[in-house]
Design a protein that fits this description.
By secondary structure, the chain is α/β, with parallel strands linked by helices. The chain folds into 2 domains: 4-42 and 199-270 and 362-410, FAD/NAD(P)-binding domain; 51-94 and 132-191 and 272-358, D-Amino Acid Oxidase, Chain A, domain 2, CATH 3.30.9. Helices cover 31% and strands 25% of the residues. The protein contains 11 helices and 22 strands. The strands form 5 sheets. Strands 4, 5, 6, 7, 16, 17, 18, 19 and 20 form a 9-stranded mixed β-sheet that branches. The protein has a 6-stranded mixed β-sheet with strand order 9-2-1-15-22-21, covered by helices on one side. The protein has a 3-stranded antiparallel β-sheet with strand order 10-13-14, with no helix packed on it. A hairpin with a 2-residue loop joins strand 11 (227-230) and strand 12. The model has no long low-confidence stretch (mean pLDDT 94). The structure holds flavin-adenine dinucleotide. Residues 8-14, 31-34, 36, 38-41, 44-47, 220-221, 254-258, 277-279, 312, 354, 356-357, 379, 381-387 line the site of flavin-adenine dinucleotide (FAD).
Amino acid sequence: MRTDVVVIGGGIIGASSALQLARGGAQVTLIDQDIPGHGCSYGNAGWMTPCFAMPLPMPGMLIKSMGWLLNPESPLYIKPSLSPDLLSWLTRFLFSMNEKKAKSSIELLIALSQESLRLYEELSHTQADLMKFEKKGLLMISQTASGRQAAIEELKWGEPFGVIGEILSGERAQELEPSLKKNLGGVYFQNEAHAEPLGTVQALLKEGLKLGVKVVPHCQFQGLGHRVQIGESQSLKSIKTSLGEMFADQFVFAMGSWSKAFGQELGLNIPILGGKGYSIILPKLQRQPKIPIMLIEKKVAITPRENSLRVAGTLELVDQDFSITQRRMDAVVKGARQILEIPEKPQYLESWRGLRPCTPDGLPLLGRSPAIPNMVLACGHQMLGLQTGLGSGQFVAEVVLQNRSQDPRLDPTRFT
Ligand SMILES: Cc1cc2nc3c(=O)[nH]c(=O)nc-3n(C[C@H](O)[C@H](O)[C@H](O)COP(=O)(O)OP(=O)(O)OC[C@H]3O[C@@H](n4cnc5c(N)ncnc54)[C@H](O)[C@@H]3O)c2cc1C
């Protein structure tokens, strides 16, 4: 008998879950309050880079971030506030900053990223036009000796789990990427890839459509519907939406940074705050890079596109605040100008902001809710939702269709 599944949220996580569920034989309906792919998955840097699979709370981060917090153009910003949600998030965040936790999280995130990369590469064979998938590696570039050391540290964290990198002198960096300014060393990670973020969501949905996935845009989840008590737990029969009640056997909740607001309704504590970041599309440079570049000191991500350049960065911790701070957006471009020849006042072909769904321990909530076992959570993918997307979708499909056991590190009830 086919399982009916409703997936709520059509970002990279919902779209990946829908496709992998359909591949596993489920009858899937995906709903989104907007057009699928127009949340945080719309304009991210497009990186699929297992080398860069660090959780947000990393050891040593505290001292570094104290300096950043005072600078309005810094890569990380937290507006001082006494909001109980923010204070409780920060407390949990601080307790997660230890070596043992970081190692275990990195192992898990790299494994999810590697599995996703393999699946994306496979998908790109049939969806090349939409995805524009390229495997050119990633240059982690620094302007200072301490930045270079940070890039090498990143390599060291990843090496035990299969990440490969070449430590670069300034000359070697320029040889690999002639568009770089002089004297910039770092590390080159050879096995990494990039793709168009929105195109990748569209590719997943197009592939899903072939397997019968029904996509319903402008359909907002508004609450749980009919429930039946079975022993200690409940079985969810339907959800309430702006287009009426929807029935299914299983439900997957993938609402990104919007998830926190539904915690009470779902009977869970979902401490997800938004990590606001900006991405700007610039006209193609005269000296256009061919390889994606991360500038370590500024945490700026540069991604070459066919006829333009994407520059992305900053993380400002907010609660569903979508406003744009022009100064922080301009600081991203200013950062990129330090290593590439970008005009003083470039034209912004497109400017965008998105809220990364950030949990305080830097890991997603992925798995069943014990109180309502046919309700599966798939949210909180912080800065890595694209690169861990299809692997997360596979995880969801195995939970729903094969009753895969939970990973305690991803347990959706761990904050409840
Ligand atoms: C500047 C920037 C750069 C980034 N670069 C990268 C990168 O290079 N690589 C990487 O892996 N990640 C990157 N990220 C992070 C990545 O974009 C996110 O982790 C990812 O998009 C999260 O996907 P999601 O599906 O969980 O959320 P979203 O894409 O936000 O999707 C959630 C969906 O749920 C829908 N929804 C919400 N509420 C409801 C409701 N009530 N009913 C129905 N639908 C609802 C929304 O409309 C939305 O479409 C970046 C993020 C930013 C901001």
